[in-house]
Amino acid sequence: MLKSKDLMGTGLSSQDFKQKKVLVERWTANAKYGWDQGIAIGRYLRELKNGKITGIKCHKCNRTVVPPRIFCEWCFKPMDEWVYLKDTGTVNTFSLCYVAWNMERLKDPLIPAVIEIDGASSGMGIMHLISEVDPKKVTRGMRVKAVWKPENERTGAITDIKYWKPIR
Amino acid sequence: MGRRVAVVGAGMTKFVRRAQETGKELAWEAAKAALDSCGMTLDQIDCVVLGTAPDTFDGVHMKGEYLADGAGAWGKPYMRSYVGGGTGVFCPIHGWYHLASGHFDTCLVVCEEKMSSYQPHPQGAFLTIFDHTTERPLKPNLLWIFALEMNRYMTTYGFNKEDIARVAVKNKKNALDHPAAQIPEQYTIEDILNSEVLAWPVQRLDVSPVSDGAVALVMANEHVARRVTSKPVWVEGVGWALDTAYWTNRDLCYPRYVEVAARMAYRMAGITDPAHEIHVAEPYDPFDYKELHHMEGLMLCERGEAPIITAEGKTQRDGELPICPSGGLLGVGNPIAAAGLMKVAEIFWQLRGEAGKRQIARKAKHGLAQAWGDLMQVGTVIVLGI
Amino acid sequence: MAFKTRITKPAEAKPWYGDLPVESLYTMGIAGEKFFRTLKDKGKIIGSRCDKCDYVYVPPKMYCERCFEKLDKTVIVGLVGTLNSFTYVYIDVDGNPLPKPEIVGLINLDGASTNLMHRLGECKMDDLCIGMRVEAVLKPAKQRTGSINDIKYFRTTKKK
Fold first, then answer.
1. Counting CB atoms within 10 angstroms of each CB, which of B78, B243, B264, C96 has the fewest?
2. Which chains contact C through at least 3 pairs of Cβ atoms less than 8 Å apart?
3. Which residues in chain B have Cβ-Cβ distances shorter than 8 Å to A95?
């Protein structure tokens, strides 16, 4: 039986660190990368620069997926038919996020969402942000449209879509 | 299905926010406690399995090799297994196939995590699980993925936050009786609903705390197990499965991969009616809604029914189907891989009747532990029995 | 199977640049805390002894990795030891030439069973050979912070 007196493990408080009661060593890793975009995502990003969202179709499974990939993970056959999708979609789910990645508090919430893209098979969503809307009014099933950066500011990145706004 | 394998000993450290011990030292404290619990010594151990989540937490590259000596692997066959948050339950499965194959007779299974090393907050380490081209430029944080799944689950079945918060209240209360618990405290549903909103619908008290800690098990083949203890706890079933890495293409309201893993484990254990044949379960609960999600995936209840049987009190320690009697990750703490193995240890103690104040009221012959992880896509399940 | 899509213009194959932000704060641990405190405050190097295995770990460990018993016995090892191996380092971690080559060695301190990795100083490459006696040069007490760099380097022992 587990007994409190037998348990090892020494807990420290943030005071122990501030008052330098324990010795520490700090280290910052120099982890910089240049990832190849790959075949499918490379084309996806280049098309975003043109203001278009691309999907890819698997004829065997009869589905169109986004983000595109060069093989279908269901049947493991090559995906071969590139298709342009619409820049509108439906909110599958969303959140109102009040904290940044390092847990710092945000005054106005970010609205991340999974958005099912029109033209792709049902359930095929991408993660993006929703804006130009009262956070209280966002709902599942809401129809949204992409707001693009001006053409000369696009770089071939997912952020070429600034955010998605409700279709009124 | 290979040779019979039993769990014969278990040990753990306290779960704390920041440990003074190094990762190696935490691993040793748990491993030593597990060996002592069954009166065994390191020279009786044939092989060692280690589990630990991403290297970025401890800030040690190739953490498996680094932790080897603390896990008791000096000069022994040794392997690290890794399936993100699912690691804690995958490790005893890894131990099981070492022994079921007949290649070894005894195995020490150790899981360790030292999340506090990551600065300024371990949350940041999760940033890198998102796709680096299509998702990370949006500056996501890990909470998004949970909040999105939780919202999808709630709106699909029409549950409100109160239905979900009951899990947090129950688990944090259960942890009051766990000697290793990080910050045991009694909360009311109102406390949960009034806690800071992080990423709606996720609030501060819906989330398990980040922790440092380690847990270890000693596993053995039947002929050794019967010599070591009069109460071996048998591994009756194991299962694991992964879903696609394109998480935004998945059905977020039902963990199909958990069902696949559970079916594999039940088939091996000869269980056809899990809701009645599993007597105590420790599904993975890093967030309160995940316990409900996983109960459904494990087929311990119908889809959309988990919040209802929780509200009815069936999942309390004195209920028909006690869920997370340990206090789970929400109550005891969440040192990722170690938290999953803590769940297996709890089932071990519950089935032996050694859980002390945490002992469930009903008789239990079969128990289950489950963990979940990677990019919300892996289910790992182990069924234990006496 | 051939690739279905080829990039024909090399300029299209752009890498996506990014990093993994990893900043760590390490505690020294139970045995490490004792080791670095003693080094900082007393200018001494300690190890932990396992009587059962007749083995002395430097830096000390909380447990013996061989027999798995807890190690409570601290021993002071000398600042003097034997050079077991060494290397000349001409490049930094990114592969750029160092302005001055560094010498790094493995030192078996007297009384220890293990080797300690550290820099060697006050010596030329030609002076060194495996098996020679070396001693630790510590920073002045005031400058010591409880780090492995409280030992500035090892140098060859002066003949008396």
1. C96
2. A, B
3. 143-144, 147-148, 151, 199-202
Kindly list the domain boundaries of chain B, sorted by start residue: 5-119+209-385
Asked if residues B170 and B309 have their Cβ atoms less than 8 Å apart, the reply is: no
Strand residue runs (E) in chain B: 5-12, 47-51, 78-81, 106-114, 118-119, 197-200, 202-203, 212-221, 233-242, 280-282, 366-373, 378-385
Topology of domain B5-119+209-385 in CATH is Peroxisomal Thiolase; Chain A, domain 1 (3.40.47)
Helix (H, G, I), strand (E, B) or coil at A153: helix
Nearest chain B residue (CA) to C27:
B20
**The residue type at B189:** I
Decide if the complex's ipTM is over 0.95: no
Contact (CB<8Å) B25/C21:
no
Q: What angle do CA B149, B155, B157 make, to 5 degrees?
A: 105
| CB spacing of B248 vs A127 below 8 angstroms | yes
The predicted-structure confidence for B178-231, as pLDDT tens digits, reads as follows: 999 998 889 999 999 999 999 999 999 999 999 999 999 999 999 999 999 999
Residue A90's H or E segment, with its range, is: strand A88-94
Answer yes or no: do A114 and B144 touch at CB < 8 A: no
